[in-house]
Amino acid sequence: WNPFDDSHPSSFFSPAWMFGIRTGFDVVIGNPPYGVSIRGEYRNKVVKALGKVPDYEIYYYFIELGWKWSGKNAHCSYIIPNSILYNVYAENYRNKLLENWNIKEILDCTDFDLFEGATVRNIIFLFNSKGPTKKVGYRKSVGIDSFSELIVNPKFELRTNELILFNQNWGLAFKLEKDIVKLIIKVKKNSESLVNYFPHISQGLIAYDKYQGQDEYTIKNRIFHFDKKVRDDLKPWLWGEDVTRYCVNWNKKEWIDYSEGIANPRKKDFFTKPRVLVREITNPSIYAGYTEEELYNDPALIVVLENINLQLKALLSILNSQLASFYHFNNSPKATKGAFPKILVEDIKQFPIAKSFENYQKLFIDRVEKIISLRKKNHDTTSLEKEIDVLVYKLYELTYEEVKIIDKDFWLSEEEYNAIKI
């Protein structure tokens, strides 16, 4: 076999046999294929050789091969899809990269085309095989239109422990201003994940799904939904817009037959017990409402059930606060994508709740109950909501300067803010 004869490609690759390289390559450079999920029997062979990777996507395996074939102090550079920065299923893999590699620099080329006519947005990874990573270099890509502009931008660095706190979306860590990065890190460090306080969180039901065996007629005609209550056993059906800040007001326009034929029905508790409903679409902010009524919904709404020792109305005040929306738009993977920014179930689960939250619930509940009562009468609740914003800032121990990063038009003076204690 002649390694320099392109007319006779090899069906396998062996650095030792082909090139006499037995201690690993010193340099690995590549633009691996992507957009293909390895399947079938070949998947089993690849997993056995290299281990599991997110979505069994082929470019992750090329990263693994680069590591496997690199020498002790080798350098590796790949052009790969930017999805590795924010893929929900790649969170553990991103941590693994930090452990195994010394990531020298990540160049985020999301905002411009690296290749003419390409539809996939890319990043450039620069690795050293001698891990773990201590610091990751990056260059600000906001407002950049080409690689030639990006590469001459000043180089910044994030420590590994800082990047781990942005593990839901590395891309945001490379775009945000330094003061915002520090603020997001502070909020996370003084907190526990929401799911540790409220473990029962779910999307709404999925009524129709061809992969669950439903036929085209069932799906096309939405046979479980009705615009009139033609039977007593039909259940009220919520739309996303029925959830406003703090309240849930059913539109009374649609019902559902909650029966065995539904594709993914979810547990009935998610539609009957006291709960917070969060709109999936977060434009212009997070919308979270409270209800105790029997109401059914699809994944356009995310459901959080009450915990025995913790109150949903206290949680409601945090989710509707300016701090929550600020955090969401500067941390969540889907928060800045396209015309319809979204909050995902995983975002809700990982949302940081201040460790002192349990001690101050009553402080928030009193105000939330007033807001709900006033909103039912169509009264203005702006002043109460501003009070809650301040209390949330205090709960997370934010300084006045940090509050001004979130709200440049904050209504209190520094002296007034510092005088407030909780």
Q: Remind me, CATH topology of the largest domain?
A: Adenine-n6-DNA-methyltransferase TaqI, Chain A, domain 2
Number of domains: 2
Query: Unreliable stretches, pLDDT < 50, 5 or more residues?
Result: none
Strand element count? 15
CATH architecture of the largest domain: Alpha-Beta Complex
Write the layout of secondary structure elements.
Layout lengths: L14 H5 L5 E6 L9 H11 L7 H12 E12 L9 H10 L1 E7 L13 E7 L6 E5 L7 H4 L4 E5 H5 L5 H6 L2 H12 L1 E3 H4 L3 E3 L12 H5 L4 E2 L8 E2 L18 E2 L12 H4 L2 E5 L8 E4 L9 E5 L6 H8 L2 H8 L15 H6 L1 E3 L6 H16 L5 H14 L4 H7 L7 H6 L3
TL;DR of this structure?
With 422 residues, the protein is an alpha+beta fold.
What does this structure look like?
With 422 residues, this protein is of the alpha+beta class. The chain folds into two domains: 15-175, Vaccinia Virus protein VP39 (Rossmann fold), CATH 3.40.50; 196-419, Adenine-n6-DNA-methyltransferase Taqi, Chain A, domain 2 (Adenine-n6-DNA-methyltransferase TaqI, Chain A, domain 2), CATH 3.90.220. 34% of the residues lie in helices and 17% in strands. It has helices at 15-19, 40-50, 58-69, 91-100, 147-150, 160-164, 170-175, 178-189, 194-197, 216-220, 269-272, 312-319, 322-329, 345-350, 361-376, 382-395, 400-406, 414-419, and strands spanning 25-30, 70-81, 102-108, 122-128, 135-139, 155-159, 191-193, 201-203, 225-226, 235-236, 255-256, 275-279, 288-291, 301-305, 352-354. The strands form four sheets. Strands 1-2-4-3-5-6 form a six-stranded mixed β-sheet. A four-stranded antiparallel β-sheet has the order 8-14-12-13. A hairpin with an 8-residue loop joins β12 (275-279) and β13 (288-291). It is globular and about 80 Å long. The chain starts with 14 loop residues before the first helix and ends with a helix.
